[in-house]
Design brief:
By secondary structure, the protein is α/β, with parallel strands linked by helices. It has helices at 2-60, 69-81, 94-114, 124-141, 155-162, 164-181, 210-233, 257-272, 294-306, 344-353, 357-379, 392-395, 400-410, 432-444, 459-466, 475-480, 485-500, 513-522, 538-544, 556-575, and strands at 146-152, 187-192, 195-200, 243-249, 279-281, 311-319, 325-334, 386-389, 418-423, 447-453, 470-473, 504-507, 526-527.
Length: 581
């Protein structure tokens, strides 16, 4: 009995010891968790203190420069958004002060992410998000969306003339005036550079079909321009500026945000060419023609970036009366499997309209110079001159002259052997960039040809200003000279003018024997046209060995009859009242 009692007591003691051990183990685990929690809180407090010290140090920075300039620059941005210290609570705890500063950092980050720092308007990123939302909503409820693209004309000239600070002030003035003129529910943003975007609120319109929204948007745009002009007249000390506005209206079935931007930008470019109204509404019907076809534009843009082999360069000979090669003019061609042969004037118009010319021009220049080197080598004429067409946008592009000369140098082609062909319309408005590019290229030795001479309104003035080395008679004069006496007289006058001014005169579009003989009799010595040769590849040109006699040799009998008929008409004109003296 005693042994049983001892055994039971032992078991009880062992059980108690086990319970106590388990209790101690649980208490130790709880203590460990408590220590870890305390350690975590200490780490958090330490991080909070470190964050507070960093924020205090950041906000106390005054100067910018030296090491850590990014940190100091951010400090200045934060201080711009900091409230007046005098308005704070006289007593603030450490955590309250830290929370306030964190809120200020978040507010600053929000402003930097969504707002334009110069104008205070929503920036491009904010606008794109809003336009995407509005486009989806427009498609969902079947309500057309109106987007205005607003451009400050000649803004670069303002920057160049008065400085960047004046340019920034002009942006602020435009933003402020537009903000005061639009409705509370309209959304105005700075798209970038000298461009603003305005999403019009059309909720209050009784009639929300496309025509009504189109009329409403045009009226709002006209009202903006009129009010801005009226305000400018009352502030003579302000920098004068003009605005161009392009308008896009979404389709009834909905239009993507990207398409709306493209349409409004295209309309804005058209508005800039209108010297009176400065407003253009994108017309979906005109978008179906070749120059506005978005599929064609998309293919062109894609090929420029990803399929440059689809572009080629042909050379059309410029010859003397015997057909001997004097020079070649580079002509671009584009072959895309989705489209039939696209005329150069169409794809160049696309590139100009949608601002692809900088990249497109560099691509074509590289192909041209490579093909020219091969042609010179095949013809064994290392100095064969090249005529290179230059567009208005390229001439007005800053640094274009430097880029062109760098390409010549890289390809080891002398600038003296290149004639730049420009049209009258390309230089009708001389900008600082255009003048600088021409001066740089002429100084390097490039020659200058005035192409399509006579089609503009300032030909004689341009001759005085540009002092070109060459004049190319417009095809309209050349092709009508056989039947039109006035055109024939103009050609003769140009021959005399070019001879007196020591200019080279080239007749383009020479396709008929009669025309060729007339031009020869008038004194023209350089010719270009299908009578001699079409545009050829460098291989075809090399096979000709540089000789392109006219397909129909001059007939002395025909020439004599033409001269006699011209003399009779001249005498008849002199006998008429007001005839030529």
């Amino acid at each position: 009995m005693r042994e049983e009692w001892l055994t039971l007591s032992g078991l009880v003691v062992v059980g108690l010891l086990l319970v106590l051990a388990q209790r101690m183990r649980w208490m130790l685990a709880q203590r460990r968790l408590q220590l870890e929690r305390i350690r975590g809180e200490r780490l958090v407090n330490q991080r909070m203190r470190n964050t507070e010290r960093e924020l205090t140090s950041l906000l106390d920075q005054v100067q910018i420069g030296g090491e850590g300039s990014e940190t100091k620059a951010f400090a200045c941005l934060l201080r711009r958004h900091e409230d007046d210290p005098s308005e704070r609570m006289p007593k603030q705890g450490r955590f309250e002060r830290l929370a306030e500063r964190l809120e200020m950092v978040l507010q600053t980050a929000r402003s930097l992410a969504l707002l334009d720092p110069i104008t205070g308007l929503p920036n491009r990123h904010y606008f794109l998000e809003r336009l995407q939302w509005e486009s989806e909503r427009s498609c969902r409820i079947g309500k057309p969306l109106a987007l205005l693209f607003i451009n400050i004309e000649k803004f670069k000239e303002i920057n160049d003339t008065y400085g960047l600070s004046t340019g920034d002030r002009t942006l602020k003035d435009v933003a402020q005036e537009l903000r005061h003129l639009i409705g509370d529910d309209d959304f105005l943003a700075r798209f970038g550079g000298d461009e603003f975007s305005l999403i019009l609120n059309t909720e209050d319109l009784d009639d929300r079909d496309e025509a009504a929204v189109r009329s409403y948007a045009h009226g709002r745009a006209f009202e903006l321009l009129e009010k801005l002009r009226a305000q400018a007249s009352t502030q003579p000390e302000r920098i004068k500026f003009n605005l161009s506005i392009g308008i896009a209206i979404s389709d009834p079935c909905g239009t993507t945000a990207e398409e709306m931007i493209r349409r409004s930008d295209s309309a804005m470019v058209m508005a800039k060419s209108r010297h009176e109204r400065h407003i253009s509404v994108f017309d979906i019907e005109s978008d179906r023609d070749a120059q506005n076809n978005y599929r064609l534009f998309n293919a062109l843009q894609s090929d420029i970036s990803h399929a440059p082999e689809r572009f080629s360069i042909l050379f059309q000979p410029i010859v003397d009366a015997r057909g001997q090669l004097l020079k070649v003019e580079a002509l671009a061609r584009w072959s895309n499997p989705e489209f039939a042969a696209v005329p150069p004037d169409v794809f160049f118009a696309l590139a100009e309209r949608y601002r692809l010319m900088p990249e497109f021009g560099r691509l074509l220049l590289a192909i041209t110079l490579q093909e020219l080197k091969k042609l010179r080598q095949d013809l064994k004429q290392p100095t064969l001159p090249l005529a290179l067409n230059v567009s208005a946008s390229q001439l007005a592009q800053e640094g274009f002259g430097t880029m062109l000369l760098a390409e010549f140098s890289q390809q080891r082609i002398a600038a003296e052997g290149v004639t730049l062909e420009i049209t009258e319309s390309a230089v009708v408005e001389a900008s600082v960039e255009l003048t600088d590019n021409l001066r740089r290229l002429r100084r390097a030795g490039c020659k200058l040809a005035l192409d399509d001479f006579g089609t503009g309104f300032s030909s004689l003035r341009l001759l005085m200003w540009l002092r070109p080395d060459e004049i190319k008679i417009d095809k309209s004069f050349v092709m009508s000279a056989a039947d039109d006496l006035i055109a024939r007289q103009i050609v003769r006058l140009l021959c005399t003018l070019s001879r007196d001014m020591r200019l080279t005169l080239v007749a383009e579009g020479v396709e008929e024997e009669v025309l060729f003989q007339l031009l020869r009799e008038a004194g023209v010595e350089h010719f270009q046209g299908y009578l001699f040769s079409a545009a050829l590849s460098h291989e075809e040109l090399a096979a000709s060995e540089g000789c392109f006699p006219p397909r129909y040799p001059p007939d002395p009998v025909i020439a004599k009859k033409l001269i006699e008929s011209e003399s009779k008409v001249n005498r008849a004109l002199k006998l008429q009242p007001g005839g030529a003296a």
